[in-house]
Specification:
The complex is a heterodimer of chains A (about 500) and B (about 180). By secondary structure, chain A is mostly beta strands. Chain A is built from 4 helices and 32 strands. Chain A has 3 domains: about 170 residues, Immunoglobulin-like (Sandwich); about 160 residues, Cupredoxins -  blue copper proteins (Immunoglobulin-like, Sandwich), CATH 2.60.40; about 120 residues, Sandwich (Immunoglobulin-like), CATH 2.60.40. In chain A, the strands form 6 sheets. In chain A, strands 1, 2, 3, 4, 6 and 8 form a 6-stranded mixed beta sheet that branches. Chain A has a 6-stranded mixed beta sheet with strand order 12-11-14-19-16-17. The N terminus of chain A is likely disordered. In chain B, a hairpin with a 5-residue loop joins strand 6 and strand 7. Classes of the chains: A mainly beta (about 500), B alpha/beta (about 180).
Chain lengths: ~500, ~180
């Protein structure tokens, strides 16, 4: 056994101590382990005691075995997805983070309501190659339970690093997780990420679609695996916790012969389950879903989790690139559910009530944001919010803490754009004038081509500067991002 | 033994990856698609070739909101192409009429001497098409590759290919760019 294997096993050991309920019947854990091409690196450590979650991890290039091939990708501490961190409201999270990449990076905690400053969710922080920085923040005691998606957010390298493999989950266990039906459910995390099929993903023609549409890879993975098989309890509930961790790919999800019961959107529980036949998940979005075992299904019977076709760009936007066709023409199989033996729980009913969601007050301010791309003199083709491409030295929006605002987001372009606001969640009020059918907290929402979406947001707790942007990260990198200053 | 083999493979692969990355960087640095069409030798040569083509009028169809379509048209005009500019509300009808395979679509559509020229096709490819007169329906640059004429964005150039197509929907590579 050589040093590389020792490090790998060390990482697995430390990780498995705190492996969440997700993938608990997957003995190996779901994360892909890698060997390590670089110089000495501290092993991953995660410890949790007395309200303190301590993590030591890094971002690094690593050889990862994926789809039967060793690939040189980017990983957090050798794992794709990155180490899963479990925490509870009230916990202090301390992450000693080392950048072993050759380029600048940082961490964004997508879905956490924490300060956008200091050692919190500061996306303007740049951690240079070779540097270590310690993030430390407290998850508010009234924070909802949900899946938080951590990923790099240093403008200029975001899309590159997401495409390379970076991203992971923080699972916050809140009040909703104490519901008996949810406690009894078998849980699987479903971290969706596409990779290039090319040996060298850094080649600019390694992708199925170009920069303009946003790059998609031809290799679809779930928790770093291609087509994993999960055991479905023959009775009872399965909880699927989806994260779209792709740069640009949308997932139109459906499970054969099983309705999906949405119980949470982004990092927040709903008021009650909502039955869906399919679920569209755009980059950056998360969804918490229950599936009910069907009576009369025999053991070993298998059902596919599908990605159905979706067209996110108008004629001419997608094209085909690198000699292959872009996404969206046929069904793709993401995973399979095999019915197993009866679970040892007799809880088979869905929860009726989850967590109440208060309506937001009348807004004291309304604003309008238009999303499009266009030619700007001196810049060429760029992506725009209100006609401007991103400028790190410009404050685009100033708001006052404690106030409610209504934002109208207009997609005046010919491609869909997922809109993401950091730090404070919002509620969608209407789309094209049609009121939203159920109340939900969101931090990332699709604004379709030509759509006018209205949302309400209350700015609370944390002064400072953060961003809103398109979560097709190639669009964010080419300018579709604005800076918001929240004043006390 | 197998570990040694793995290490060697890794080293070789890393070297190849690095070499690939350097090659791409070199391309990106030495081959910027300049917005300025007046001042470089290659463009002068193309302008000379365009001037020698008889009756080569580009009949361009584009939507009013398409900025990059206008940027492409301006470059073709600067290189000496005669143009007829048609700003229309719906591009779908014209694309359907040309028999263009849907996966080859781009933003603007051009007709010239019985050929279809779809999207951000470089002028040199149009000159070659009109000189060689191949038995095809037309040529296309599918999508909107960053760095193609009219799609400049900083120094970024992503590789793309001009493809041929015929009425049966067959396509071949006509010219590769940026690789």
């Amino acid at each position: 056994m050589n040093r590389r294997q020792l490090i790998s096993l060390g990482a697995l050991g430390a990780g498995s101590i705190l492996l969440s309920q997700c993938a608990r019947n997957n003995a190996q854990g779901s994360a892909v382990q890698s060997s390590d091409p670089a110089a000495p690196i501290a092993p991953l450590q995660i410890t949790r005691s007395k309200g303190l979650v301590e993590v030591a991890m890094d971002a690094r290039p690593s050889y990862v075995n994926m789809a039967g091939q060793e690939r040189l990708l980017y990983s957090y501490s050798g794992q794709i997805p990155g180490p899963r961190i479990e925490a509870s409201p009230g916990d202090t999270v301390r992450i000693r983070f080392t950048n072993v990449l050759a380029e600048t990076t940082n961490l964004h905690f997508h879905g956490l309501h924490i300060p956008p400053t200091g050692t919190g969710d500061d996306v303007f922080r740049k951690i240079a190659s070779g540097e270590t920085f310690t993030y430390e923040f407290q998850i508010p005691t009234d924070h909802p339970g949900g899946v938080v998606y951590y990923h790099p957010h240093a403008h200029g390298t975001v899309a590159q690093q997401i495409l390379g493999g970076l991203g992971g989950m923080i699972v916050v266990r809140g009040v909703v997780d104490e519901r008996p039906e949810i406690q009894a459910a078998q849980e699987e995390c479903v971290f969706l990420k596409d990779f290039s099929t090319a040996e060298n993903w850094q080649a600019t023609n390694a992708w199925e679609t170009g920069l303009m549409a946003g790059r998609e890879g031809g290799l679809l993975t779930v928790n770093g695996e291609v087509n994993p098989i999960w055991e479905m309890p023959a009775s009872g509930l399965l909880r699927l916790r989806f994260v779209n961790a792709s740069n640009a790919r949308f997932y139109r999800l459906a499970l054969e012969e099983h309705p999906l019961y949405l119980i949470g959107t982004d990092s927040h529980p709903l008021e009650a389950p909502v039955q869906l036949s399919e679920l569209l998940l755009v980059p950056g979005e998360r969804a918490d879903v229950l599936v009910q075992a069907q009576p009369g299904v025999t053991q070993e019977q298998s059902f596919k989790l599908m990605n159905l076709p979706y067209r996110r760009g108008g004629m001419g936007m997608m094209g085909h690139h690198g000699g292959s066709r872009g996404s969206g023409s046929e069904n793709q199989v993401l995973a399979r559910l095999n019915y197993g033996t009866a679970s040892n729980t007799n809880v088979t009913a869905l929860p009726r009530q989850l967590i109440p969601i208060a309506a937001l007050a009348q807004p004291s301010q309304t604003r309008s944001f238009s999303l499009n791309h266009g030619m700007v003199p001196g810049q060429g083709m760029v992506f725009l919010v209100n006609g401007k491409s991103f400028d790190p030295d410009r404050i685009d929006t100033r708001v006052k803490l404690g106030t409610v605002e209504e934002w109208e987001i207009r997609n005046t372009g010919v491609m869909d754009h997922p809109f993401h606001l950091h730090v404070n969640p919002f509620q969608v009020v209407s789309r094209n004038g049609q009121p939203e059918t159920f109340r939900a907290w969101k931090d990332t929402v699709l604004v379709k081509t030509g759509e006018i979406l209205r949302l309400r947001v209350k700015f609370t707790d944390f002064p400072g500067k953060t961003v809103y942007h398109c979560h097709i990260l190639d669009h964010e990198e080419r300018g579709m991002m604005g800076i918001i200053q929240m004043d006390a | 033994m197998s570990i040694l083999f793995r290490s060697l493979t890794f080293t070789l692969r890393r070297t190849l990856v690095l070499a690939g990355a350097i090659a791409l960087l070199t391309v990106a640095c030495t081959n910027p698609q300049s917005l300025d069409t007046s001042n470089n030798q290659a463009n002068q040569e193309i302008a000379t070739q365009v001037a020698s083509l008889p009756n080569a009028e580009l009949v361009v169809y584009r939507s009013p909101t398409c900025g990059c379509c206008g940027a492409w048209l301006a470059q073709m005009q600067a290189l000496g192409f005669q143009t007829q500019d048609n700003v229309i509300e719906s591009m779908d009808a014209i694309k359907a009429k040309t028999g263009l395979p849907q996966e080859l679509a781009s933003c603007h559509t051009t007709l010239v001497n019985g050929y279809v020229v779809e999207g951000h096709v470089p002028a040199a490819d149009i000159v070659r098409l009109l000189t060689e007169k191949p038995d095809i329906a037309g040529i296309a640059v599918p999508g909107m590759p960053i760095g193609s004429p009219g799609m400049e964005s900083g120094d970024t150039v992503e590789p793309y290919a001009t493809l041929t197509f015929d009425q049966a929907g067959n396509t071949t590579v006509f010219q590769e760019h940026g690789v």
